[in-house]
């Protein structure tokens, strides 16, 4: 089971210079709850945007075309889409794609589920979710959880769950 998991603003923005353009603790909590004790797959820039830190209690895969890329201990480096798909085929657990844009574009066609945090605000940034890589007619929204807006989480947001129907 391959699941794409991302947060985006109202314009589809997902990143700014290697980091998230917003601070939304509810989304970080959601991310942790979904990915804990599972495998996460990310591109090199996404990994380096997390300061190259391995997230605890998760298996981390960095997908990069750089054959000489050296990741810290505890990180699996893969160089092709097929390597990721072979890994997914060998596990009975969900594997989460967490970005960036190139990883999503390469593997969205293989996903069975999508978990999107929609932030009803516009931010500045330089990386957008590859909307052209999804035919939304192939997906059904199965659940929506409204995020709580408070002092720490000032932007209206919701967590959306989709399953592939075609």
CATH-assigned homologous superfamily: Dihydrofolate Reductase, subunit A
Strand order of the largest sheet: 5-4-3-6-1-7-10-9
Q: How many structurally independent domains?
A: 1
DSSP strand content? 25-35%
| Total number of strands | 10
CATH class: Alpha Beta
Secondary structure: helix percent:
10-25%
Radius of gyration (CA) equals 15 Å
Oligomeric assembly:
single chain
CATH architecture: 3-Layer(aba) Sandwich
Q: Distance between the terminal alpha carbons, to the nearest Å?
A: 15 Å
CATH topology: Dihydrofolate Reductase, subunit A
Shape: globular
Residue-averaged pLDDT, rounded? 97
Keywords: NADP, One-carbon metabolism, Oxidoreductase
Family: Belongs to the dihydrofolate reductase family.
Function: Key enzyme in folate metabolism. Catalyzes an essential reaction for de novo glycine and purine synthesis, and for DNA precursor synthesis.
Pathway: Cofactor biosynthesis; tetrahydrofolate biosynthesis; 5,6,7,8-tetrahydrofolate from 7,8-dihydrofolate: step 1/1
């Amino acid at each position: 089971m391959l699941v794409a998991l991302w947060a985006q603003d109202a314009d589809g923005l997902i990143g700014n210079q290697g980091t998230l353009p917003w601070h939304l603790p509810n989304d970080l909590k959601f991310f942790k709850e979904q990915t804990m004790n599972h495998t996460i797959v990310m591109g090199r820039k996404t990994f380096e945007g997390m300061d190259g830190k391995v997230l605890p209690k998760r298996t981390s895969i960095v997908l990069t075309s750089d054959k000489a890329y050296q990741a810290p201990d505890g990180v699996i480096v893969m160089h092709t889409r097929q390597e990721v798909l072979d890994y997914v085929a060998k596990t009975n657990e969900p594997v989460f794609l967490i970005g960036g844009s190139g990883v999503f574009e390469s593997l969205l066609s293989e996903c069975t589920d999508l978990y999107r945090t929609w932030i009803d605000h516009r931010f500045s940034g330089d990386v957008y979710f590859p909307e052209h890589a999804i035919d939304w007619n192939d997906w059904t929204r199965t659940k929506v959880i409204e995020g709580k807006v408070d002092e720490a989480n000032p932007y209206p947001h919701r967590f959306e769950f989709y399953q592939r129907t075609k």
